[in-house]
Amino acid sequence: MKMVKSLILGSAAGILAMSGAQAADLPVKAKAVEYVRICSLYGAGFYYMPGTDTCIKFGGYLRADTAIAGGDYGFMYSSGTTNRGSNNRLGNYWDARARMDLTIDTRTATEYGVVRTFADMVFSVDSATVSGSTPSAIAGGTAGLGLYHAFIQFAGFTFGRTISAFDTPWTGYPAGGPDTIPGGSNMVTGVDQVTYTAQFGNGVSASI
Fold first, then answer.
1. How many of the other CB atoms lie within 10 Å of CB of 87?
2. How far is Cα 18 from Cα 163, in angstroms, rounded to an integer?
3. Is the C or the N end of the chain the one with fewer CB within 10 Å?
4. For residues 124 and 146, what is the distance between their CA atoms, to the nearest angstrom?
5. Residue 134 burial (CB count, 10 A)
6. pLDDT tens-digit readout, 90-144
7. pLDDT digits (tens, 9 = 90+) for 143-179
């Protein structure tokens, strides 16, 4: 009887051991690698640059305009270089513009505060301005590369090109007000500057 009990217990132990070995041999699902980590410290759209503590955000837009016998944006019909009545092969009756804008915003936390860099670059291509006297101009267009904003901010200082601290909100684009009124310096492209801004809380600040 003792021998039978020993055989039964030994068999059960062997089955348990085999079950444990088979369970251990099952493949374990690997933890997903997080290649891009979201940075929520500075608002939506920021991500950590791989291997660093710097957060980066990309933005921008694409824009395309076409004007038929129009005069917007200084196109040829507003420049007066084409004889509108000639109706010949030397004159275009439509104009086009394509524009790409790219913004790059980075934030890096340091022991002395956040270091921010920002750049806003634009590339535009206009259709050629043609006239009866310059038919060769039809073949080409006008391209332009611009830098609207490019600055570094740290500990209250701003170094580079951006909106003036003394601009009033009703000047420049998109409101459309002229830059000649008080407080205007063109909020679209900014101005070159070295500025220090002290924050006193409750929306009160002073800039030099």
1. 9
2. 73
3. N
4. 8
5. 12
6. 555 677 788 999 999 999 999 989 999 999 999 988 776 544 333 333 345 678 8
7. 888 888 999 999 999 999 988 888 766 655 554 555 5
Q: What residues form DSSP beta bridges with 126? A: 97, 142
The encoded tokens of residue 20 equal: 């444990």
Query: Which residue is listed with tokens 């694409």?
Result: 62
What b/e sequence results for 94-132 when a residue is b if at least 16 CB atoms lie within 10 Å of its CB, and e otherwise? Answer: ebbbbbebebebbbbeeeeeeebbbbbbbebebbbbbbe
> In 3D, which of 168, 197, 42, 186 has the Cα closest to residue 117?
42
Q: How many CB atoms lie within 10 A of CB 60?
A: 12
| Token pair for 97 | 């513009």
Query: What letter represents residue 155's amino acid?
Result: A
Pull the structure tokens for residue 62. Answer: 């694409």
| Band of residue 35 on the pLDDT scale cut at 50, 70, 90 | confident
Report the DSSP pairing between strands 94-110 and 191-201.
Answer: unpaired
| Residue tagged 């200082």 (tokens) | 157
Q: What angle do CA 200, 179, 71 make, to 5 degrees?
A: 140
Computed on alpha carbons and rounded to an integer, the radius of gyration of the chain in Å comes to: 33
CA 56 to chain CA centroid, Å, is 9
| Beta bridge partner(s), residue 158 | 153, 195
